[in-house]
Specification:
- It is a single chain.
- It is built from ten helices and no strands.
- It has about 240 residues and is an all-alpha fold.
- The protein has one domain.
Length: about 240
């Protein structure tokens, strides 16, 4: 699953980040990718590479190295959180600037802006919770690996929505958000089937993480549609 996470991140951000030099038209970044976004992209890439490294070490029974790299991972998680809040705080102003350059409104350029901000906010909180609990439960493998699984899943939405957008661009069908949600649903439910097959029942922690994860996504969409909560999240960032 960690390899799938990394693959989706690469596919989703290839046009705007990893392979940006091959793409001529960049509607969101006509003046170039801002440096905070470059730094954030690098840090988040390191996080997903870290997840691949750690699961690979466990597969190879290199527990001692896994624990040593875990210290580095905790520091990387801190940088992920800081850089995420940094780019979130810049995003509304970035959309306002882009709308002004294009002679459009922010709603026309990014109709789901408040929903995205709420989603970023909730996923950042979940990231702190999952990583923090993952560290505290590091001596309980079944709990630890589930928490780290969801720590990788929380920020995957940005990549899978872009994957959906790429598919929509290639097919001419606007399936971006729908396809993104389907991918997230398939990934998040895969661990339910894994638990059922291996243990005959779903682990209680899996149910908890799965439930709070989707509750946060649903709440983000609901809060993103309310005028009062739109104002609130824009004031926060």
């Amino acid at each position: 699953m960690s390899w799938i996470f990394l693959g989706l991140v690469f596919l989703g951000f290839a046009p705007s980040f990893y392979l940006k030099f091959l793409v001529e038209d960049q509607p969101f970044y006509p003046k170039g990718l801002p440096y905070p976004y470059i730094l954030h992209g690098f840090i988040l890439t390191c996080w997903y590479v870290f997840l691949v490294l750690q699961t690979t070490l466990i597969q190879n029974r290199s527990l001692r190295l896994h624990r040593k790299f875990g210290i580095l991972g905790a520091f990387c998680a801190f940088l992920v959180l800081i850089s995420t809040f940094w780019v979130i705080s810049l995003f509304p102003a970035r959309m306002a600037e882009l709308a002004n350059d294009l002679g459009k409104t922010v709603e026309e350029v990014e109709p789901g802006l408040s929903g995205i901000l709420w989603l970023d906010f909730f996923m950042s909180l979940l990231f702190v919770g999952f990583v923090g609990l993952g560290i505290s439960e590091r001596n309980k493998p079944e709990a630890h690996k589930r928490l780290m699984f969801f720590s990788g899943l929380v920020f995957l939405f940005a990549a899978v929505f872009r994957v959906g957008g790429i598919v929509g661009f290639l097919t001419g069908i606007n399936t971006g958000p729908i396809l993104g949600l389907v991918i997230l649903l398939l990934i998040s439910t895969s661990i339910l089937f894994y638990d059922k097959r291996r243990f005959g029942k779903v682990h209680l922690l899996t149910w908890f993480c799965f439930g709070i994860y989707w509750l946060a996504i649903i709440a983000s969409f609901i809060l993103g549609e309310s005028e009062s909560t739109k104002t609130l999240i824009l004031q926060l960032f």
